[in-house]
């Protein structure tokens, strides 16, 4: 599996919905159900956290190592979680209308394709991955 994991598949799945939502919002003149201030905060926090995780995983990927520390010590897929819980919802709150359904479409695609990425990681890292996956939740940290 390449560095971007399942993200291209998820984007190809979610992008048509986003286009349709933009079209419907425009065609129907929807200006309701918008929360731009909340959306902006979610996007700003999400991008900052994404950058931290991206820098960590980029270094590990270049070195051919399984990353189990930092952001990856709490969940196996923090970048997908950040996009699905902060950035995409923030964007959706800012746009509003039909765009509010985009996070659900995103999560549907992530859940549909995540097995492919985890299989590739297991093949590459073997027992190290299996032990890590056993003790670390996929998307939400344990309390």
Automatic annotation (TrEMBL):
Keyword Coiled coil in record: no
Highest taxon, organism lineage: Archaea
Keyword Lyase: no
Residue spans crossing the bilayer: 39-57, 82-109
InterPro entries, sorted: Metal_cation-efflux_comp
Alphabetized UniProt keyword annotations: Membrane, Transmembrane, Transmembrane helix
Protein name: Protein-S-isoprenylcysteine methyltransferase
